[in-house]
Amino acid sequence: MDAHEIESLQPRLSLFLNGFGEFFGRPEPQQHLRTYVRGQLSDLPRKSIEPMALNFDTPPRTLQQFLSRAHWDEEGVRACLQKRVAERVSDDDVGVIDETSYSKKGGKTPGVKRQHCGATGKKDNCAVTVHFAYAGAGGFRSILDGELFLPEDWSQDRQRCEEAGIPAEMVYRPKWKIALELVDRAAQNGLRLPWLTHDEGYGRIPEFHLGLQQRGQLYVAEVPTNFCGWCKGIDRGVAASRVDDLVRHSPVFRDQPWETYFIKEGEKGPIVWEAKFVAEFYLSDAGKPAGPYWLIVARNALDHDEVKYFVSNGPPTTPRTQLLRVAFTRFAVERCFEDEKTEIGMDHFEVRNYLSLKRHLIISAVSLFFLAEVHQEKREKKSGTDRLPGADGRQRHDHQLVDGRRQAAAISGS
C-alpha cells in the first residue's frame, strides 16, 4: 500500500489496535505499537526499527526498548489475535505449518548459524522460525503464530543463550515438535482449525503424524517418496514399502485409473492434476503398522514427472475433492511469507535478544492480519466473489475443487 492508502486507513487502524490495548497498559507502549505497525504498513524501503522510528518522529532507542524492555503482555496479544481468528473459522478453513528463514550477518541474532536458508536456496548464515498459518474462506490468509528454531549448538551453549536472552527452559526441539507446540498453543486460545496441511519436511516424520492424530487434528500431509508403510491387506511379516513403490506395484494402485481434477487458475491457464486414492494405508510407526490412513498420489496432468504423495487421517468417507483441496492449500503460506517480507518487512528485524524477536514476530502477525482484512474487502468489492487467490494473486477455485476432465480437455485442445 502507498502512503496515501495508509493515511486513509488510520481511523480504522486505530480502532483495530485498540482491541489489543488492554495488553499494553500505559499509553506509551500503546503508542509505540501504533508506530511499529504503521511503520510495517508504510512504503518505507527498509522497515527495521531506526527508519520506522525516524519516519514517525520517534527516537529509535525508544522503539528498541519497546521490543526489548518495556512492560507489556506479548502472550496476551497473540492470544487475542488467535481468538479473533477463531471467531471467523468455517468448515472449509485450513491451517498450514511451514518455516521460513532470514539471512543474517554475524552471530548475535538469536538462533543464527550456517544452515539451510530458504531465502537464499543454499546453506547460509541465517535464523529460522516455524509458523502456523491460516487459509480461510474468501481468500483470507494470515500468520497465526511463529517460534524460533533453536539449533542444537546454540542449545548446548547456555552462556550464549543467556547473552541473547533465551530462557533457560528453551532448548533444542526438532521443527516438527515446535509445530505441535504451535498447534497446542492455538487450541489453548480456543482456535482449532478443521484441517491442517504441511510439506514433506514435516510429513516425513511418523511421530508428527501420530502427534496430530492424538490431538484429533485432521490433516493432509505431503510425504517424500521414501515414506514407508503398507497398503490394504498388509502382511505384518513383510517390511514396509516406500510410497512410490506402493503406487507402482500395489494392485490397489496399479489397477486404479487416474482421476482428473482442476486445481486452480495459473499464470498460463488452468492447473490440472490427476490422482489416485487408497483409504487403507498404514504408516510405519517404529516398524509397526499404524492407521488406517489415506494414501494419495497426484501427478501434473501436463508433466507426469511432477508427482506428489500425500497421507491423510481423514475419515474414509471424506470426499476426494476435499482431500486435494486441503493438500493444495499449503501454498497459501508461501504467499503469507511473501506478504510478510515484501509488504511489512518481517525479515528486516535487527535484534540481538530473544524477547525482541518474539515480540517482532507477534506484532508482524498483527500487522499482517490487518492487511489481510483490508485486502479481502478490496478483493470482494472488485470481484464480487469469495474465491481463494493463488500464490500468483489470480483467482483460484480450491473451495470449488471439481472433477477437471472438461478443463483438461480444454487445455489439451480436444
Short characterization:
This protein has helices at residues 3-8, 10-18, 27-41, 49-55, 60-68, 74-86, 152-156, 158-163, 175-188, 200-203, 206-214, 243-249, 251-254, 320-329, 332-342, 354-383, 405-412, and strands at residues 94-103, 113-117, 122-135, 141-148, 195-198, 218-223, 228-230, 241-242, 259-266, 269-285, 288-300, 303-312, 402-403. By secondary structure, the chain is of the alpha+beta class. Helix 3 (27-41) crosses helix 4 (49-55), helix 4 packs across helix 5 and helix 5 (60-68) packs across helix 16 (354-383).
Structural notes for this entry:
This protein has 414 residues and is of the alpha+beta class. The protein has a domain at 203-329 and 389-414. Helices cover 40% and strands 25% of the residues. It has 17 helices and 13 strands. Strands 1, 2, 3, 4, 5, 6, 7, 8, 9, 10, 11, 12 and 13 form a 13-stranded mixed beta sheet that branches. α3 (27-41) crosses α4 (49-55) and α3 (27-41) packs across α16. The longest helix is centred in the C-terminal third of the chain and has 30 residues, at 354-383. The model is unreliable at 385-414 (pLDDT under 50).
The arrangement of helices and strands along the chain is HHHHHHEEEEHHHEHHEEEHHEEEEHHHEH
Q: Percentage of helical residues?
A: 40-55%
Structural class: alpha+beta
Tally of helical segments: 17
Number of strands: 13
Radius of gyration: 23 Å
Tell me, briefly, the overall form.
globular
Cα separation of the termini:
43 Å
Low-confidence stretches: 385-414
The major sheet is characterized as: 13 strands, mixed
Q: Whole-number average pLDDT?
A: 88
